[in-house]
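USER: I would love a firmer grasp of how sequence relates to backbone shape in proteins. This is the protein in question:
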Amino acid sequence: MELGPEVDDAPRGLPVRQIIRGRYVVLEPLHRRHVGDLWDASRGAETSWAYMGYGPFAARPDLERFIGSWAAAQDSAVWAVRPVTTGLASGWLSFMSIEPANAAIELGNIWFSPALQRTRAATEAMYLLLAMAADDLGYRRLVWKCNALNEGSRRAAERLGFTFEGILRAHQIVKGRRRDTAMYSILTDEWPVCAAALRAWLAPENFAPDGSAIVSLAALRTAGHRS
């Protein structure tokens, strides 16, 4: 009878809500003081909320109430994303579905303004939280899930190195519509190659004078990049 391999079953620690500094971005625990920047960043970006469980926000007080409530929640940890090039909070991302006993944690509820999307700052923001979970806290299962129709989120998961696990059919009702959920994960033995590829991709020497990446994340990961 096969029972599966034995693993370290010590509960993992909870993420600490602290400022995290990278080369291209600063992550700050989400706070009402970020509302002004985030309100400005969200103007004209109505379609960016299409697959979120909230938004768009009709007025700044609506966003402020949402941020105030979410920042105080105890079942998740949320950071505002502040690119160093602008100094302005331009999005957020969080840890959610935190399961210390199972050493599993989800990177999710990600909202990046159009100006932040597909930038080095955006990639580094996700890397910094994944590294905290895997390297600092020892979580062995990193989770990404999204609406199965959200092709942008699915491409982002695959780009970071997440493995597609399947579809949870009729998983949720979001904004009055059925949501099928695409499930992805990175396991502890997969993370070192993903992490090394991310570090190599983020290195300044990987960017041409026009700002484009010289080598893609997928190519670095396929090469089993070590750094």
